[in-house]
């Protein structure tokens, strides 16, 4: 379990969530005044997910945010003025007015990878960042977020498979906000819990009430700790709700009104305010002070943003290609000798414990044990999926309102995922292979055959 939060950390969580919301509301006003130059994608209702997850990271860790993760950017040290100027395309914005939304990052100081609009593509990118950090001895954790819709992309699958196989220290937050544009989750995937995707990759997963910032933080902290301890990636499904349309142009008329009402009653900020009051973590005076601080910061930053001009036309041709404006250098936190020959040399042979052949008897025995049934005796197996879960219910009713299982996300989470079982990681084949090694040396085992590999040595011992 992670450490309980200090009072200061509790107030931090409130500060970032409220700042996220007030900034969101300010951007909507600017959009209506025609000051925002492009699309505007609201974060409303998802503040606890962005803030709670990012807050579980350390300064050295890396994030790649998506459009609804402004909260994560604030936690990572961006100021409201950066976001305001970015949307207003002002010359002092992180992209000097060349982009009107969220395509900016900071590799050197804040460790933020600029988002890519192609859904799911940040998963392989951040898997690469995670294993790159490991290679350099940085002991970092990488985090990115994907929406429910993004889990349907090929890049998501490729990235997850790669991360899982490489045991990348990657925390993938699946932000299930119930909608991808106008497509509800039930029309996107044939499963109830997107966390079930993790089973296919043999990695740990958790489901969390995404509108409960404490639960989000604690779950993510545990995931981050697992990653840092070298236990491989974790997929966290955060169940939340997109409280506006996809962007400002979208009135979200396709969302049942009862559904908005259901989630409005679970507003993450109102809930957290109640928690802070009931647990005597703050009083009315502290709340007022924090709100006044947020108000003041936003006013100052808006003033700054409004004073910043639009970029001059000649800037368009500058900075298209890097002409030495910055250097990209790896930060080595360990000796290069450790990862270069002769120290890094390994025998170019794999050990395999299982030749992968089809063994009907043992496959049937395993499946029967898993399903509690007897199978047929055919030389093939047709299964409807091995993860039968009769508790799953449809996520939304066609006439609106959430189905029963989604009505109490916090309780649901606790019931289905007690802290001790939250991470249901299975060992992947490669993990099992790694377990067999001692100090990086393959352990001899009678069940293990040595198989020649590629253009490796001509040793005959594996060719029996
Ligand atoms: C590969 C790809 N396909 C389609 C799009 C267009 N697109 C942008 S956002 C979006 C919906 C995303 O839904 P979801 O992943 O649930 O994220 P949310 O908007 O709910 O945060 C789509 C289809 C895209 N950017 N990339
Ligand atoms: Mg979505």
Q: What does the model show?
A:
This protein is α/β, with parallel strands linked by helices and 464 residues long. The protein has a domain at 7-317: Rossmann fold (3-Layer(aba) Sandwich), CATH 3.40.50.970. α1 crosses α2 (47-54), α1 packs antiparallel against α11 (268-278) and α4 (80-87) crosses α12 (284-307). The chain starts with 6 loop residues before the first helix and ends in a 13-residue tail after the last strand. β6 (204-209), α9 and β7 form a beta-alpha-beta unit. The strands form 4 sheets. A 5-stranded parallel sheet has the order 1-2-3-7-6, sandwiched between helices. A two-stranded antiparallel ribbon has the order 4-5. It has helices at 7-32, 47-54, 70-75, 80-87, 122-135, 154-165, 185-188, 197-201, 213-228, 257-264, 268-278, 284-307, 360-371, 409-416, 429-435; strands at residues 62-64, 142-147, 170-176, 179-180, 183-184, 204-209, 234-239, 350-352, 437-438, 441-442, 449-451.
